[in-house]
Amino acid sequence: MRLEFDGEKKSGDQFLGILALADVPRAGVSGVLERLHQLGIRKIIMLTGDNERMGRSIANAVGLDEVKADLLPEDKVKAMTNLDNVMARWPWSATALMSHCKSRTWR
């Protein structure tokens, strides 16, 4: 794991320490994504507010196809709207599918 440092943090000339945080995928996510690919889902995209490096790290760990990182909540809505336009011929829109899944898995 590579840490990002956001500038110098000290009190006087005394070093204060390091605090590192990281998102960890839930157990079983890789298996679920693999099964979705087996069912014919060709591309799975993660929308995240995390930076590109963290998003890519998670994506690589679990087998995601694409990452859209550094997104604000309104950017995620815009991305979902764009996906709706792409998926217009499907029975479920991207936002409807997200709402359906969110209520079950994103707690």
What does this molecule look like?
The chain is mainly alpha-helical. The chain has helices at 29-38, 52-62, 73-86, 94-105, and strands at 10-11, 14-15, 45-47, 66-68. The strands form two sheets. It has a two-stranded antiparallel sheet with strand order 1-2. Strands 3-4 form a two-stranded parallel ribbon. Residues 103-107 have low confidence and may be disordered.
What is the string of SSEs from the N terminus onward? EEHEHEHH
Q: Shape from CA axes?
A: flat
Strand order of the largest sheet: 1-2
**Biggest sheet details:** 2 strands, antiparallel
Give the number of helices: 4
Brief digest:
With 107 residues, the protein is mostly helical. The chain has helices at residues 29-38, 52-62, 73-86, 94-105; strands at 10-11, 14-15, 45-47, 66-68. Residues 103-107 have low confidence and may be disordered.
Task: Outline the secondary-structure elements.
Layout: E1 10-11, E2 14-15, H1 29-38, E3 45-47, H2 52-62, E4 66-68, H3 73-86, H4 94-105
Parallel strand pairs: 3-4
Antiparallel strand pairs: 1-2
Features:
single chain, 107 residues, mainly alpha, two-stranded antiparallel sheet, two-stranded parallel ribbon, 4 helices, 4 strands, 44% helix, flat, disordered C terminus
